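Example record

The entry below shows one chain as it appears in the dataset: sequence first, then structure tokens.
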Amino acid sequence: QLLQSLRNYESPLSDVVGAEIPVIADGGAIPVAESRDISASARITLEPATEIRLDAYTRRMTGIFARTSDGLFAIDDPAPGRERARGLGLMLRHTGRATVTARYSLMSARIHANDVDFAPRFVPSQTAALGLRYNLTSKTTLRGSSWIVVGRTARLLTGQVEVEWEDALSRVREIGGTGALDMSLSPAKLPNYVRFDFGIEHELSLTRSKNRLRIAFNVDNLLGRANVGSWLRSPAAGIGDAVPMIPLSANLSLHWAY
């Protein structure tokens, strides 16, 4: 991999701001990242409409830029590091008038850089998801999904940081203040996260034409559960307020095919 990034993935604000700072590897101060992967997959068809799939992988990476600095963006000179990761996933799907898809995965990852060995904050230990599509009529579909994430950690934030993930109507993300990651303590455990989404989709065929209009309405995070991305830490009070992401929101979309 000849293209590296100075984005600090250990910062919870990397979930809010997707900006990268790309740099080209030169084989010297900026090494060429390498990855060695082994993966395997097996699929079992129980009947024409039901299948089970099992996936497993292991990966080792060297020469990656690992961020262990306290800045929200890695504008300093990050040291090359190495990473090892492994995972196991199970998927069950039944297709019919009601299509149900269930997924469960186990994963682990460790990064070593600057003589520090740590688990990256963006890798949970377990995830589970359940999706449902039900054809109410030939043109109307109900959709539902749930998502569970367990075993995430994050570096604590210090200083004055204010984050509004997305306004429910304008979908605008707001970030304010200054802050840094507290590297003096081990990463703090984040609460387990459970999310439910629900939606309905209807297709209209315009008279005497091949044009089709699909209308979809969706409610995300139906129960309004806060997805905590990090904790704000006060030196005097210890762990303080949470930094939430993805609030309860609704959206309406139109898709015109012609």
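Notes for this example: The longest strand covers residues 50-65. The radius of gyration is 22 Å.
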